[in-house]
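Write out structure tokens for GYDIA family GHMP kinase.
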Amino acid sequence: MIRTDNRLRLSKEEQLSSTTENINHLTTVNSKNLNSNNKAATERSRSYSNGKLLLTGEYVVLDGALSLAIPTKYGQSLSIEPIEAPKLIWTSFDESGQVWFQDEFIIKQMVTSLTPKNDISDRLLQILNASKKLSPNFLNTDSGFKVTTTLDFPRHWGLGTSSTLLNNIAQWALIDAFQLLKQTFGGSGYDIACAQYNTPITYQLENSNPIIKQVVFNPPFIENLYFVHLNKKQNSRDGIKHYHDHKENSKSAIREINAITAQMTTCDTLNHFKTLMFQHETIISKLTKQTPVKNLLFNDFKGAIKSLGAWGGDFVLVASKENPTEYFKEKGFKTVVPYKEMAL
């Protein structure tokens, strides 16, 4: 069960309304029509899901901490086109229009006898087969589909190549993306929430159920916030394993992170926000026995730096009175994105 504030959960129609290429998108499931999945899938359609960044609560979001997350202006689309052959012809494009993944699957063999060509094919089959378990009528057809996915961000940015794909497939199969996540990758689910919402949210697990609330995050110092990429991608599953292997006294840490998240959403001065960033880094550092990124790489930086998501890669949040772009470029970190250019 997913609890949200009234009017906050976006419908599929709302998610797709800004997509100019949307063609006869998937309709809401009619529980009285057992063939609704097949009917929806016989038309060309396109879905889109937002990317994500977790501003607070990394790691501890898994254990119920209140976390602040934002959907990004970057995401991934999925288009399907019916074909006569009983197979899936899958092609994935990156942000520059280059093919980064391609494969074909005989639909009737997907569950029983297909041997994946590589790890990506294996993961994709896992999602498709889990979708079929959740909705047996999904892909229950004698024909097939040409499927095209398109990213509008570099894969190494870590904005949710997997979560946006999973949410798009859930829309195609007309199933709950959170249930699909549980059957496949696991994790807190905040990335799925970001895929579906077009504003900042707070996210919290209560008895394993997501509580999602839309919030306004537009502080007067928003021009002083930036995202800087660390030139490498961090594997979220590895980060989760590290957390579970090293966490101690997480209940106390969660209470502190809850308070920091609440303060960050209402903070109105840059100095206070920087203090909260430092406090957050200190708590997570002690909990996971990792060194804060500022201590590792940017000791001489005058502003505040906070890791986002699994520590060690992807983007960090930077708060600085002065534009820090030249500082980071001189250090070899050339991807510096102002907050307003990243956040949806």
